[in-house]
Design goal:
Elements: H1 12-36, E1 45-49, E2 83-87, H2 97-104, E3 108-113, H3 115-131, E4 138-142, E5 145-150, E6 155-161, E7 167-171, E8 174-178, E9 193-196, E10 213-216, E11 219-221, H4 226-244, E12 251-254, H5 294-302, E13 310-311, H6 315-319, H7 344-356
Parallel strand pairs: 3-6, 3-9, 8-10, 9-12, 12-13
Antiparallel strand pairs: 1-2, 4-5, 5-6, 7-8, 10-11
Helix pairs in contact: 2-3, 3-7, 4-5
The chain binds 2-acetamido-2-deoxy-beta-D-glucopyranose (4 copies).
One 2-acetamido-2-deoxy-beta-D-glucopyranose binds at residues 263, 265-266, 289.
Subcellular location: Membrane
Membrane topology: Single-pass membrane protein
Keywords: Membrane, Signal, Signal-anchor, Transmembrane, Transmembrane helix
């Protein structure tokens, strides 16, 4: 080359090298920005067929309850287990049970909530057991708390059945749902990780409603707007978190609203009265019916918590999975609320795993 820039004695070659370095630095910066966003949005994406799923065959998980064992209950198709969630802007690492267990060594995780929490809890125990089939496990129950332990790792994965998070107290007048009282929180203390959920029971009426009165402050009434009651209970829960959580000790998640599929108009199939016979997810990222209103209430209450709480924002990805429910193959006559296992909650746990890496 031998070309010299007139003033500075720079060769063209070094100019090229300089330019090259500048481009490299720029690329590094962009990359850095991308990995700073590696708290990537795992919740916006689409479902893609993937024959390497499910993570476990339901038959190798001996403790799945009847409620979620669709295969055992006669569901003929397995297609719904062969999808992978693909976020739009990044990749999810495949769940690694061995790695998850090592990270959790000596720790206690507790799911708190209704049967959707049980769904996720069972999913996680199945994912771990199938990854570590030789690890001893022990399943015990005391009152409302079920504990699945892996003694060799000192890991306990617990479930506290508590459908409202706030208390239902038996009093002289009857059973009172107390929106300001959260004594149930005593068993949540000292956990290393908590994953809360409540929603589905707020709409229960009639014989399946487990309370007779609802109390807010000193005011006791027969009923009130259910969405408002839900919001007040979440506010009580948020105060509990701010008062009781040491963020250095405990990671706090909220499971998010798990959607049901009882109305085909919501996915442009008006003739469908429920999820029966659905064999495919909705492809793409848009659910025509939009979000359930409870999501907005939950998000606005979560914004008021001062301590760090991460929302497992599973609503959109689950809305797309009209094919993932037990339908006829669960316990209820038609169950389009819970999820078959293996199935959709495995993805909730895969995201949980990616969030704690
Ligand atoms: C979920 O869907 C709603 C409306 O369909 C949209 O506004 C929202 O951004 C979506 N959220 C995520 C995390 O994809
Ligand atoms: C399982 O846990 C219970 C209660 O903690 C304990 O009594 C029992 O010995 C445990 N069983 C095994 C096999 O570890
Ligand atoms: C958490 O740990 C940090 C650093 O070790 C410390 O400065 C902080 O005071 C701790 N916070 C609490 C609430 O204990
Ligand atoms: C089903 O959804 C459609 C569209 O959102 C709505 O107009 C209709 O009232 C719903 N049907 C029932 C039974 O809830």
């Amino acid at each position: 080359m031998g070309f010299r820039v007139f003033c500075c004695g720079f060769s063209f070659a070094s100019f090229v090298v300089l330019l090259h370095s500048a481009v490299l630095i720029l690329l590094l910066l962009v990359h850095h920005k991308a990995s700073a966003a590696s708290q990537c949005d795992f919740f916006t994406g689409r479902w893609v067929p993937d024959k390497t799923y499910p993570l476990y065959h339901p038959a190798v998980c001996p403790f799945i309850e009847r409620e979620f064992s669709c295969q055992k209950n006669g569901r003929p198709d397995l297609d719904y287990t062969q999808y992978r969630w693909q976020p739009l802007g990044c990749y999810l690492l495949r769940f690694n049970g061995q790695d998850f267990m090592e990270r959790l060594r000596g720790k206690r995780i507790m799911f708190v909530g209704d049967s959707l929490s049980r769904n996720q809890w069972q999913s996680l125990t199945c994912m771990l057991h199938s990854a570590l089939p030789n690890a001893k496990y022990n399943l015990t129950r005391q009152q409302d708390v079920s504990t699945f332990s892996f003694p060799d790792y000192g890991v306990e994965i617990m479930l506290d059945r508590n459908v409202y998070l706030v208390d239902v107290v038996r009093e002289e007048i009857g059973r009172v749902l107390k929106l300001d009282s959260i004594e149930g929180g005593k068993v949540w203390k000292g956990m290393d990780m908590l994953i809360f959920n409540t929603w589905h029971w707020w709409n229960r009426r009639g014989p399946s409603q487990p309370w007779d009165y609802i109390q807010e402050g000193t005011k006791i009434s027969k009923d009130m707007d259910r969405m408002l009651a839900f919001q007040k209970a979440l506010a009580t829960w948020a105060r509990w978190v701010d008062l009781n959580i040491d963020p250095n000790k405990t990671l706090v998640f909220f499971q998010g609203i798990s959607p049901s599929h009882y109305n085909g108009s919501q996915w442009n199939e008006p003739s469908a009265k429920n999820c029966v016979g659905q064999k495919e997810p909705l492809f793409g990222s848009i659910y025509p019916g939009g979000l359930p209103p409870a999501v907005g209430v939950l998000k606005s209450e979560l914004r008021k918590v001062t301590k760090p709480v991460k929302l497992l924002d599973i609503t959109n990805l689950s809305l797309l999975r009209k094919d993932g429910h037990p339908s006829l193959y669960g316990l209820a006559r038609m169950d389009c609320s819970h999820w078959c296992l293996a199935g959709v909650p495995d993805t909730w746990n895969q995201i949980l795993y990616n969030l704690i890496l």
